[in-house]
Design a protein that fits this description.
By secondary structure, this protein is an alpha+beta fold. It has three domains: 61 residues, Up-down Bundle (Transferase, Pyrimidine Nucleoside Phosphorylase, Chain A, domain 3); 259 residues, Pyrimidine Nucleoside Phosphorylase, Chain A, domain 2 (3-Layer(aba) Sandwich); 88 residues, Alpha-Beta Complex (Aldehyde Oxidoreductase, domain 3). Strands 1-4-5-13-14 form a five-stranded mixed sheet, with helices on both faces. A four-stranded antiparallel sheet has the order 6-9-11-7, sandwiched between helices. The protein is globular, with a radius of gyration of 22 Å. The termini are far apart. The relative contact order is 0.14. Bound molecules: uracil and calcium ion. Uracil binds next to α9.
Amino acid sequence: MRIYDIIKKKRDGEELSTGEINYFVHDYTNGNIPDYQISALLMAIFLNKMNKRETLDLTKAMVNSGDTVDLSNIDGIKVDKHSTGGVGDTTTIVLGPMIAACGVPFVKMSGRGLGHTGGTLDKLESIKDFKVELSTEEFIQNSNKIKISLCSQTANITPADKKFYALRDVTATVENLSLIASSIMSKKLAIGSDAIILDVKVGSGAFMKNIDDAIVLAKEMVEIGIGYGRETIALVTNMDEPLGNAVGNALEIKEAIATLQGQGPEDLYELCLELGSRLLVLSKRVEDEKEGRTLLEEKVESGAAYEKLLELVKYQGGDVKFIKNPELLPSAKYILEVKSDSEGYVKSLNAEEVGKVALSLGAGRETMDSIIDLSAGLVLNKKIDDKVNIGDTLAYIHCNQLEKGKEAKEKIKELYVIGNKNTKAKKLVYGIVSKEGTELF
Ligand code: URA
Ligand code: CA
């Protein structure tokens, strides 16, 4: 087999065989095919697309490129959740303890943030001594004892995806349905959870900018999951503005703590209830979503979900003092207030641009080697559809470099588009994709 012929075939819009897909994934991962040829192939895939069979083959080849993690030693029906990437999305750190408090094992291996989206591991590392690197044994032990474990992917899970993703990132070939679906699902499938819920984001802060594309992506991923024998469903949710109020690592941990204490932003809590109630159904813990929602609310109101977060932190070596007293978490030297000089309603607040402002303050990574400022970020005081008067605080900038903070302040002010009330009320969840089909809300 020659990589040249495979590139040419895809360039001419033809379908690649299973053997051809296995070949280029395997040989690129092993270093036998140079980046420039795979770059050309990725662009051909980007332009001419892959069909469902090719996408499933690509996913399988990526799963088989490295180790898989056997979770059969964890008791019960194990659930996992994945978001396609958003801004200020603290869901995992809230949802995980809520689900675990219901007695269902929530087992997740997460990634780090890159670009304008944040990563769960970085956020967790704002808690002093919290250990995100667990051995498979520790991961399994903790999952059995306290029903929750959140850690990094061990080095050899889907090495193909790491190489492909790094190359896609610099060749403008990220936003392709088959490439995104196979990248995400290969990582999920390499880890043996029984049920997976996908949070497919759509809007200004997401890869998918419109609902139709997001639904196609959701369907593709759900089919791959089911094809692999895993219970898989997807919710298509709003990422037109950041989720919750906080964007930034330590700031989002504070937000997660408040939410688990019943005092968090409404949209973040509501999304956790929407995802969580369905996860409880998938895990057979409850009969239907309504029962799931009631159970989750009970766990938050009784403090059980918050206690679960304390337990998680303790089991992963972190200091619970930082959860009990969130003011001890890393905090920035300066807090700048962004005030409105106009009156009306917030019409839009571009999430990707807000993410980039957080990045400019040091809250994210420009490259995989960047060092993150855990205390930096911003807290939104007004969100889409909120009423604003002249002089009202729109947001707070948390920074350690005053000059960067001042630039961020100007930029955030521009990003708040204030005008007449939007005619359509915003929606948090647009629809659900499952083996039964697609339901739009
Ligand atoms: N997240 C991933 O892991 N892969 C993609 O391709 C896009 C988002
Ligand atoms: Ca948030």
